[in-house]
Design brief:
Keywords: Aminotransferase, Pyridoxal phosphate, Transferase. The protein is of the alpha/beta class. It contains 13 helices and 14 strands. Strand 6 and strand 7 form a beta hairpin. Helix 1 runs antiparallel to helix 9 and helix 11 packs across helix 12. The protein binds pyridoxal-5'-phosphate (PLP).
Length: 401
Amino acid sequence: MDYVYGPGRNHLFVPGPVNIPEQVTRAMNRNNEDYRSPAIPALTKVLLEDVKKIFKTTSGTPFLIPTTGTGAWESALTNTLSPGDRIVSFLIGQFSLLWIDQQQRLNFNVDVVESDWGQGANLDILASKIGEDKSHTIKAVCIVHNETATGVTNNLATVRKILDHYQHPALFLVDGVSSVCALDFRMDEWGIDVALTGSQKALSLPTGMGIVCASPKALEASKTAKSVRVFFDWNDYLKFYKLGTYWPYTPSIQLLYGLRAALDLIFEEGLDNVIARHGRLAKATRVAVEAWGLKNCTQKEEWFSDTVTAVIVPSYIDSSEIVRRAWKQYNLSLGLGLNKVAGKVFRIGHLGNVNELQLLGCLAGVEMVLKDVGYPVKLGSGVAAASAYLQNSTPLIPSRI
Ligand code: PLP
């Protein structure tokens, strides 16, 4: 008995964990297997090759780690840096805050570059810090590509340009948790040294797999990095890669088969089409927000996120009430405002395996809740604006052409 049963499908529009497609659920519905049999290494070998495609890398080395995004952060940091190392990190929202907290607790010397929540990373300050650092005391630049708390996307190409302009050797570590497989992400082209994501975001898998991809320079750095690491030590993985058995400890068999199915779906749609779909759904969401007369928490268009939109509510409304009511009344799950923006924003996640009509259902639900909590919205206004946009911009489904 499901004590929170609601009829129909839950409209899951939090920015992760996201909907799991049927094909993936079915692929995971299987018994455990002996991971030392030849089958699992054979499956893993191909997964490791294929997973590089979602980071757009050919030179990176991926690690499929039984963990979450938080563990993937720790893997990136502890394998490449030593305690006391100076790093530059940007505080722009709850997830960059949590990563900075981890960096400080791991005893790195963190130069925190803070911006208002709703703004992107201040890359002018990065340029001045990198420009002044003639003796290369900065060992890494850490940045969250897409700040899920505020719906802000940072410009990674600019970070690379700054490092190149000053010929600075700092490692470039990127949290791609709410961006990889949804936003344009080019590990090799942007010279990213460690890129990471979590299975429950745009890959549309259950939570439980952290995917970390290391450049040759990051692997080289791991040979001298002195941070203590055991569970996350890349070297343990590399030893087993060489042996062709791949696993230093027990992988989730079900998640491996799920990843296979998730990648197959992404490749069938085409990664670039997947990215375009995210752009379309995000734009539709933004036109709906505008039609409701509400503001995007993201302060400039250049930072608009195509995976999550944080919507500011008028001060007489508590945004948490919107989230509570959406779930209780309409079986719609929206994202809460977190920390500094708690009560002030609610979030619509539009990432992963989701389509136009699902989004319109969500937008219809948001309108009803807005009206319920006393906001004078015209029912249908956001849906009309979004569907007018989608009707003009939605292509044929790639595999059905
Ligand atoms: N980074 C970003 C951008 C996130 O959105 C999240 C979670 O939502 C995390 C890191 C942390 O990931 P996890 O909750 O899987 O540990």
